[in-house]
Amino acid sequence: MIYHNTRFSALVGALAGLVFFAIIWAMGWRWSAVGVVIFGFLSAVGIHDILQPKRAILRNYPILGHLRFMLEKIRPEIRQYFLESDSEELPFSREARSLVYQRAKGVEDKKPFGTSERVYESGYAWVTHSVSPKVISDTDFRVMIGGPDCRQPYNASIYNISAMSFGALSSNAILALNHGAKLGGFAHDTGEGGISRYHREHGGDLIYQVASGYFGCRAADGSFDPEKFRAQAANPQVKMIEIKLSQGAKPGHGGMLPAAKISPEIAEARGIPMGQDCVSPPAHSSFSTPIELMDFIARLRDLSDGKPIGFKLCIGHRREFMCMVKAMLATGITPDFIVVDGKEGGTGSAPMEFTNRVGMPMLEGLAFVHNTLRGAGLRDRIRIGAAGKIISAFDIARAFALGADWCNSARGFMFAIGCIQSQSCHTNECPVGIATQDKLRQRALDVGDKAQRVARFHRNTLHALAEIAGAAGLTAPRDFLPYHFMFRQADGAFEDGNEIFPYLPEGFLVSGEDVPELKSWHKRWGRASEHTFAPEIIPQGRFGG
């Protein structure tokens, strides 16, 4: 293809120049020896770039890729304005990417000249530290996931790889992520694209995601196939099953994989035929009411021989989540876990309006889910995971304070395997071989090297989390509470986390006691029904009832 030639044009040109000057040097043109030396050096550099395993950019763009690294040597303030701006055009700042790169590579992550954050701007948050800090030596932080009906609970790391499908990511990216998870002892969410051969190769722990397309457990008509699911869930690598109700970056939005993009490997993983468009509908066909959702959870628990079953969602209508909680109370069936995804979560492809304006951000969604479960008296039965721009140890600590039991990260681990945010995920031309099915581009990602970076990033992030928890005077990250954080407000003042994200009383939604300051919660709870997601009281429309 043309872009292949463009990528390797510098190396091809160097080799051609070397041959040309070598020929005329052999013909007696002594001055051409200068050309032989120059083009010989460039050719050697290009060949070395292709063979070296550590820098995917150089493997895909020999010789030319060095221009990027030369620019990175420019003073930081120049680089910020001319190379990697912290503007809103990119979903993560240069500093966040730099933090991941440093921890993944195992290099020094300290820096001079103090904070680069804008500490007096609205939204700035910080940890309140203690004058009696602790030292936490064991940083293998874990949480047991499995409620009273679970027969195979999973002792999970508190930081895992969030859902990213094979097909959206390349085979080499999946291999590196899963191998890294195996090395580091943490879990890898398959995403909705099913369990591919690349998820299985290194044996890392898997969270099998079951979405509306039922990939991997799909009947010919697109419905759920229980026997295919039973076979998938029996895989000892599969530690938990996650029902995807919605995704933070595009909640309420389905999708279609055109037939032209379906390779034999993708068809194998998803259990779909070649030559046909593959549709992921916005909603599940296996349930349509809150009670039916609980019945589906119980069914999957039985089919999986008691493995942890949960669901993932981005909060939209808050009443609808309360409908689910009422169904839990009515049926006695509870999920083992709930993953709260924030609207700020990433994706390779979504309409701009969905990415920017649909769904609740993670912090607000997490606090709402945590307090609703507390209000229903169910919080101790259900673990909560959090996802949505969680990269740093600070992000994890803040999520724990608002009610999370563990966190998932997609983009953080993508940075660890070399993502440079070229924002070409949808073009099949990812320059570092991550979000592409182009075999030649995938080759740029060296699986062995990047797997080590994945494990190292995980390990170093949890080490940093231990240091932050210790600085706050705590003995474990699970002890973070809202009051350990302060939040800058729009007027320049700051407030205690307890004032912004308070823990509401246990059982307040079901106690029958009328708490005036929680009137809005009681009103919404009163409108929720376990029998339907539709509101029991239909509000009047614009022109009346």
What does this structure look like?
The protein has 545 residues and is of the alpha/beta class. It folds into two domains: 2-68; 144-417 and 425-500, TIM Barrel, CATH 3.20.20. 39% of the residues lie in helices and 11% in strands. The chain has 21 helices and 15 strands. The chain has helices spanning 2-7, 9-26, 33-51, 56-60, 66-71, 76-82, 94-105, 171-184, 197-200, 226-233, 264-270, 290-303, 318-331, 352-357, 362-375, 393-401, 411-416, 439-442, 447-471, 497-500, 519-527; strands at 125-127, 142-145, 154-157, 159-161, 187-189, 205-210, 238-244, 255-257, 278-280, 309-313, 337-341, 383-387, 406-409, 485-488, 494-496. The strands form four sheets. Strands 4-13-12-11-10-7-6-5 form an eight-stranded parallel beta sheet. Helix 7 (94-105) packs across helix 19 (447-471) and helix 8 crosses helix 19. The longest helix is centred in the last third of the chain and has 25 residues, at 447-471. The protein is globular, with a radius of gyration of 26 Å. The chain starts with a helix and ends in an 18-residue tail after the last helix. Residues 74-89 have low confidence and may be disordered.
